[in-house]
Amino acid sequence: METLVVPVIVCVAAVILDGLLGEPRKWHPLVGFGRMVIRVERRLNRHPDQPARAMASGLLGVAILCAPFAVLAFSVEVWLDGWPLVVAQAVVLSLALSLRGLAEHGRAVSGPLADGELDAAREQVARIVSRDAGALDSPGVAAAASESMLENGADAVFASLFWFLVAGLPGVVLHRLVNTLDAMWGYRSARYLYFGRFAARLDDVLNWIPARLTALTYALLGNTRLALRCWHRQAPTWDSPNAGPVMAAGAGSLAVTLGGPAPYASGIKHRPTLGSGPAPGAETVDAAIRLVQRGVVLWFAALVAGWLMIWLIAEGLQ
Predict the structure, then answer these.
(1) In what helix (H) or strand (E) does residue 258 lie, and over which residues does it extend?
(2) DSSP symbols for 203-233
(3) What is the per-residue pLDDT across 138-190, written as a single tens digit (0 to 9) for each?
(4) How far is Cα 267 from Cα 146, in angstroms, rounded to an integer?
(5) Buried b or exposed e, range 111-146, using 16+ CB within 10 angstroms
(6) 3 state DSSP class of 257
(7) What is the DSSP secondary structure assignment for residue 262, as one 8-state letter?
(8) Rounded CA gap, 304 and 288, in Å?
(9) Which of 164, 275, 264 is nearest to 218 (CA)?
(10) 159-185 and 282-317 helices, crossing angle to 10°
């Protein structure tokens, strides 16, 4: 039974650490990893216009960047035992999580937006989305921030918890690194269309189950019927197989309308509508943050309930 309760303790401890300390202001491991990614891409992505060669180089880049850290994470779990292992797991998982950072970024947008300071809200939302923030009106800023909260809640919170519970430190480390590679290479531009394809597809695979668990979590904690209907009808129209369910269910749960046309540096991107209801506002961003936070509580409650059920069954068999 100890092997079942320890992962729960690690997850709770990691969330507490993240809440107390937040993201490191200096020397964040993912920042250093990002610098490595840039160097490796410059060295390997020499022929972006040759599909086979570029895809092979991209696969090699993923292996070079991810394999050593996955092996190191596996070695830590082999070498350490007892409380030293629990502490190491909690620290690494807390670095992979971004629950506090998510809330801080979201409130940095919703605060000025609620006060009518549109320029300040645009400046803050530009830090978390790639849209042309200067072209966004107030509902556009709120929509961008709300969508970011919902999608990053799946990627940086629930997926990290899921992969730790499934595969320990190697799982959470591999997922977080691949997710970072997708964020840096997963563009459909001339330079990354082929080179970043393996990283993007691997990220889709690793996030497939966590995304749907996140969508279900969002649905259970808000307007459930509307969330499930939006998930079923709207998610297939979205260009991302994982962001679609997450944001459709999240928008439906919040009973607001997200998605739709969005300005980018390259022009207006016409996206499908997500959710149903009024246009988003500052309160929508805060509601999205609370939805993610309540989702973490729900996951912990489910984990504890599952552990108690297994314990009771084991006791009954003795």
Answers:
(1) strand 257-259
(2) HHHHHHHHHHHHHHHHHHTS-HHHHHHHHHH
(3) 999 999 999 999 999 999 999 999 999 999 999 999 999 999 999 999 988 99
(4) 21
(5) bbbbeeeeeebbebbbebbebbbeebebbbbbbbbb
(6) strand
(7) E
(8) 25
(9) 275
(10) 140
Q: What pTM, to 2 d.p., does this model score?
A: 0.95
Q: 260 Cβ partners below 8 Å, 6+ apart?
A: 143, 271, 272, 273, 274
261-289 pLDDT, tens digit each: 999 988 999 999 999 999 999 999 999 99
Give me the amino acid identity at 199: A
Phi then psi for residue 274, to 5 deg, are -120, 140
And the tokens for 141? 């800023």
Secondary structure class of 271 (helix, strand, coil): coil
Residues 128 and 85: beta-carbon distance below 8 Å: no
Torsion of Cα atoms, 240 then 249 then 207 then 62, to 10°: 40
Q: What would the two tokens of residue 123 be?
A: 């400046």
**Smallest Cα–Cα separation from 161: which of 104, 215, 94?**
94
Tokens 């092979």 locate to: 56
